[in-house]
């Protein structure tokens, strides 16, 4: 120390054990620990199991699926057989056809007064009420044994 009480920096301070410990622990050690996490070991590859392939029963499909829009009730009955439900209301008629996995509702409305009702809306769902693919349901309904109308 000089006469003013301040400490002078000399080479002896750098070799002081306490000063060296503080210097190493305070700056070098954390830097070395931080860098030791980088690189080193190779990363282990993440292995994901391949998806299980479940067999799907092939559904023979007709050459072309029929377009239901514009069909009459008689056309639908010729195509699918008797409906499982036939609900007739003043402005709409709903024919419901059911297969082992899906339900198809065809809503028929009159295009003009005194004309035959035609399909204007189709609703397809699975047996639990969830949305279902219309083409898949049509294929199933076409494969279902048909109940013929009593007039035939």
3D structure, described in words:
The chain has 152 residues and is of the alpha+beta class. Among the domains are: 10-37, no CATH class; 73-143, Beta-lactamase Inhibitory Protein, Chain:B, domain 1, CATH 3.30.1450. Helices cover 28% and strands 18% of the residues. It is built from 4 helices and 4 strands, in the order αααββββα. It has helices at 11-14, 17-36, 73-80, 134-143, and strands at residues 85-88, 93-98, 102-109, 118-126. A 4-stranded antiparallel sheet has the order 1-2-3-4, covered by helices on one side. The longest helix has 20 residues, at 17-36. The chain is rod-shaped.
Would you summarize the structure shown here?
With 152 residues, the protein is α+β, with helices and mostly antiparallel strands. The chain has helices at 11-14, 17-36, 73-80, 134-143, and strands at 85-88, 93-98, 102-109, 118-126.
What CATH first level of the domain at 73-143 would be assigned?
A: Alpha Beta
Q: Taking strands numbered 1, 2, ... along the chain, how are they ordered across the largest sheet?
A: 1-2-3-4
Helix count equals 4
The helical percent reads: 25-40%
User: How large, in whole angstroms, is the Cα Rg?
Assistant: 40 Å
- Structure classification: alpha+beta
Assembly state (oligomeric) = single chain
Portion in beta strands: 15-25%
Low-confidence stretches: 56-60
Listing every helix as H and every strand as E from the N terminus to the C terminus, the arrangement reads: HHHEEEEH
What's the total count of β strands? Answer: 4
- CATH topological fold name of the domain at 73-143: Beta-lactamase Inhibitory Protein, Chain:B, domain 1
Biggest beta sheet summary: 4 strands, antiparallel
Overall body shape: rod-shaped
What's the mean pLDDT score?
76
**Shape-level CATH architecture of the domain at 73-143:** 2-Layer Sandwich
Give the terminus-to-terminus CA distance. 122 Å
């Amino acid at each position: 120390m000089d006469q003013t009480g301040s400490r002078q920096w000399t080479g002896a301070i750098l070799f002081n054990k306490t000063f060296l410990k503080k210097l190493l622990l305070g700056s070098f050690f954390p830097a070395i620990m931080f860098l030791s996490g980088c690189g080193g070991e190779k990363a282990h590859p993440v292995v994901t199991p391949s998806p299980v392939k479940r067999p799907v029963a092939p559904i023979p499909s007709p050459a072309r699926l029929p377009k239901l829009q514009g069909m009459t009730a008689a056309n639908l009955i010729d195509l699918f057989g008797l409906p499982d439900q036939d609900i007739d209301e003043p402005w709409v008629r709903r024919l419901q056809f059911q297969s082992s996995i899906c339900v198809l509702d065809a809503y028929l409305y009159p295009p003009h007064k005194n004309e035959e009702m035609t399909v204007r809306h189709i609703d397809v769902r699975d047996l639990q009420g969830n949305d279902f693919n219309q083409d898949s349901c049509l294929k199933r309904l076409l494969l279902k044994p048909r109940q013929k109308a009593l007039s035939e």
